[in-house]
Structures are given as structure tokens and as C-alpha cells.
TrEMBL record:
This is CASP-like protein. It is found in: Cell membrane. The keyword Chloroplast does not apply. Residues 12-155 form the Casparian strip membrane protein domain. NCBIfam families: A_tha_TIGR01569 (TIGR01569). The keyword Cell membrane applies. It is a multi-pass membrane protein. It comes from the Eukaryota.
Amino acid sequence: MHGTDEEPNGSKAVTLLLRLSTMALALTSAVVMATASECTIYQPNGAKATVTFKDYPPFVYLAWFNFVATILEAAGIYLQVGTGDCDDDEEAPKIPRIVLVAIDVAVLALLNLATGAAFSAVVAYGPQISACTGTAGRFCEQVHRSKHFSLAASIAAGSAAFFKDVPLPFNLWPKSSDDC
């Protein structure tokens, strides 16, 4: 603690890092899914069908839920950084902290729903999605990448919620006297 009597801010720093990771991973997942290239599938009867992520509702949910989670997480980062280190102050406004908890719950719920929908859609539509591998297009690869980014974002969001309440005994930035 560098010989000072400041409260350790390690959990705030780790939480901020995890929030930034959540935001980046959720946005990446949404963009990768939204840009999933078209794929042409040739059916046994000779007919061909072109598919995109929009043809599978769970993939549309994944893209939108991850995009909304990104926006909410950005608001959460703003609230975490904007409230400063005066969270324990009795006179500090409680509304931002309440809103931050609501955002944390909403982000985690959206990411878990999106990830679960994507994983179950890959199982349900497996043969159709697998038909797009190789020379037919990158659709299958993008679907798998997007669902893994979404899973990573969900894990980061859950970890951020956990570390927010766990005191970590180190400081990453000094507390200035002007903060409170």
C-alpha cells in the first residue's frame, strides 16, 4: 500500500478492466455475427438457398443483445468512473450505484441469453450451418467465433460483478485529495 492510509482500490481497477473487456468482446461478437458472409447451400434436389445470420432468429438475438449489452456496459463504465472513489461517503448519491447494479444485471442477462441462444442454434441448425464450411463461405466460422466472443463477454461480465464486491488489497492509481 506504499505506506499510505488510503483504501485499496484493486477491486475497482479489476472491475473496470473486466467491464472494458466485456464491452469489447460483446461488440466484437455482435459485429462478427452481423457481418457473417452469405452462404449458398445446394440442396439434394439441386436447388440452392442463400442464407445469412438473419435467417436464424437466435443469431439475430445474439447480434442485438450483444450490441445492447455493449451500450449498457459503456454506461456502466461511465457510472463506475464518474462516481469516483467516494462510494463510501454517506452523502454520495445512491442513485448511480443502484443504476449500476441494474446495468450489471441487465448486461449479464442479455449476454447469457445471447450466448445460450447461439449455442442452442448451432446444435439445432448444425447440419445447415456446417454446410457452409470450407469453400462455401465463412459463415460457419463466423458463427462459431461470434458465439465464443459472446461466451467470453458473459464470463467477463460475471467476473466484473464478482470482483466489484471482493476487496483486493492493492492500489493501482493514487487517490487525489480533489476526488471527494
